[in-house]
Amino acid sequence: MWVRFVQVSKKYSELQTPPVTSERRKELQLFERQAAIKFRRLELLNLAFAHRSYANETQEQLDNNEKLEFLGDSVLGLVVAEYLFEQLSDRAEGDLAKIKSFVVSEDSLAEIARKLKVDNFILIGKGEEYSGGRTKKALLADAMEAIIGAYFIDSGFRASRKFILRYLIPEINKVLENRHKKDYKTLLQELVQKTYKTYPRYSLVKKTGPEHSKTFWIEVTVESETYGPGKGKNKKEAEQNAAAIAYESLVKTVNRAG
After folding, report:
1. CA 147 to CA 167: how far, in whole Å?
2. Which residues are catalytic?
3. What's the half-sphere exposure (Cβ side, CA atoms, 13 Å) at 229?
4. Which of 77, 84, 160, 206 has the highest local Cβ count within 10 Å?
5. What is the largest CA-CA distance in the chain?
6. Rounded to a whole number, what is the distance in angstroms from the first to the last CA of the chain?
7. Cross-strand pairs, 215
8. What's the pLDDT score for residue 1?
């Protein structure tokens, strides 16, 4: 295990990381204090914050955080799976998989990133900055996975496991106590398939707002009944909100019929 860890560390030492100026060092150290972690190599943490748009706009040949994100996703999945296997050994595999999917979701990771103020430290290009990239859920979640990947390379599995569980155990407890954010599209599809033997159909009603900050309005149809519209800053969010409207209404209908 240690030999493999050294090999991975050596491989990632070849990456072209963004420069860590004295001012940037202070910023990264501030993040370390907020997150209660300590990097041996701050350049790895700096790379975890480097979005593709930033690397593309610099004149230097720099890497971005996507490889770290890939690695961090795997480390995160392993840590959560191991924890659930150990702590919830009485649960069926399907239950564990469902809990894990909620806990490592984009919504969950973006929420943790906001708590750690990751948006203050991300390096992004001007175009992405202009379009509100710093606050995008996907970008925040990806940065969170990249930080995990960077910390794994820098300090090993035990340290990264401790870091992950510090922030993920509360998310696991939310799911167990049914306080988590629901995936209404999945819930609606399961309900509609079970009750009506068909699928919900989503349709875009309209788009409003300027190009860089649009709002999407989407309806969902089940059988001959249309629900919504749900609105959101992207189609995915609007579909979730439309699904939530439909799901809450259909649950009441099914319960009354049952």
Report:
1. 13
2. 73, 145
3. 16
4. 160
5. 67
6. 55
7. 208
8. 44
Whether the pLDDT of residue 15 is over 80: the answer is no
Domains and CATH numbers, the chain: 2-176 (1.10.1520.10), 184-257 (3.30.160.20)
pLDDT digits (tens, 9 = 90+) for 204-248: 999 999 888 899 999 999 998 999 999 998 998 999 999 999 988
Provide the mean pLDDT of the chain: 88
Contact residues for 43 (Cβ-Cβ < 8 A; gap 6+): 17, 18, 20
Please count the other Cβ atoms lying within 10 Å of the Cβ belonging to residue 252: 10
Looking at residue 132, its pLDDT comes to: 83
pLDDT digits (tens, 9 = 90+) for 80-113: 999 999 999 999 998 898 889 889 988 899 999 9
Give backbone dihedrals phi and psi of 72, rounded to 5 degrees, phi first. Answer: -60, -35
Q: Answer for the pair 243, 200: CB distance below 8 angstroms, yes or no.
A: yes
Helix (H) or strand (E) holding 96: helix 93-103
Contacts of 106 (CB under 8 A, 6+ apart): 137, 138, 141
Where do runs of H (alpha helix) occur along 177-234?
184-196
List the beta strands (DSSP E) in the chain: 201-208, 215-222, 225-232
